[in-house]
Amino acid sequence: MDRTTVGISELKSLILNIKSNKELDFSNYALSSFKRRVESFMFRFHFLNIDELIYKINKDEYFYDLFIDDILVDTTELFRDPEFWKELKISVLNKFKFSGNLKILIPECNSGEELYSLLIILDQMGILDNVKICLTSLSKLNVEKIKNAAIELKKMEVNSANFERFDENGNIFDFFTKKGLVVKLNPDLFKNVELIHHNLLKDELDEIYNLILYRNKIIYYNQQLKTDALKILSRGIKKDGFIAIGIKETINFPGVEKEFVVVSDSEKIYKKIVIE
Questions:
Q1: What is the per-residue pLDDT across 253-272, written as a single tens digit (0 to 9) for each?
Q2: The pTM is what?
Q3: Fewer CB within 10 Å: N-end or C-end of the chain?
Q4: Distance CA 190, CA 92 (A)
């Protein structure tokens, strides 16, 4: 069987169908990355056209879950949603520039792009030495992959474009070393990073953090699981600390909403307050 090729119009049809029937919106995902994963998935499961795939994911809930799991793995990009990173730097990170140590948590991470983007910003700001970052993953393999910090060179075109939207005068390759067909993040950026295998919903957090990045995670949870996850995360945030949860989500859940105020509604960044 030849590898299936999906056209842009077909891809948009799939995205619209998932949005309409599953209330999950892929329209803001990078089409090139999404296209590659859809084609790979269709080839592996022997789909001849996009209509067959749409029919299957609409009729078979388990297969839909399998499809989503496959599509979501490693689909992030460096500096994805550049406006978020601008807002995070201005409204959150700048507040800690002269305040000593900053502790940041990135829980349940499937790939390293979120971490690498953050490290680059902290290095640009000159505060990397004052920051301790903990990244957790449910997968031991992901921990090792993230630690390796290698990105295929062919993916750097999108990453570079994102970075230019964040910093029009910057060059993302200043932070990477080319090794064959991949680039690797400069190892000096990792000196205050801890990567661990951890289940957020099973094991309580051992530390209290100034900032938690939990973008685009709870969108895949049901209401109860969203509330449980946010309660756990709230307990792990210091007073006047911050959390970012992704532009498609909200923090308005029972037992959580009154603990936070909005810092940026468009980028879904919140600040923890003390309830009197």
A1: 777 888 999 999 999 999 99
A2: 0.74
A3: C
A4: 21
